[in-house]
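User: Quick sanity check before I run a bigger batch. Here is a single chain. Can you write out its predicted 3D structure?
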Amino acid sequence: MTTGIGIEPHVKRFEEQHDDYHAILLKAWRTAWRRLYERLHERVRREFWGYAADEALDNNALISEKYQGIRPAPGYPACPEHTEKRTLWQLLDVENNTV
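Assistant: Done. Predicted structure follows.
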């Protein structure tokens, strides 16, 4: 999952205007969504599919992908190459299938 695409220019604009509140708000929004995705992935491993029910990993282990299973998403260590993002975007017809 991806979130925050295109917010960098807005963050930069807010920072240039010394509008720390809105710059921090945008960054926090992106972080909150990323954390939600991480939590969902944890629940899939531990609860929904249950193949790692006893998993107890700290943040460094999660970042290093020490969990069982993979997250084959472009840009992540399991799939560091970004060249297929455009292909995935087109296959999913993202612009017509998202709001």
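Helices lie at 8-16, 20-48, 59-63, 85-92, 94-97.

User: Great, the batch can go ahead then.
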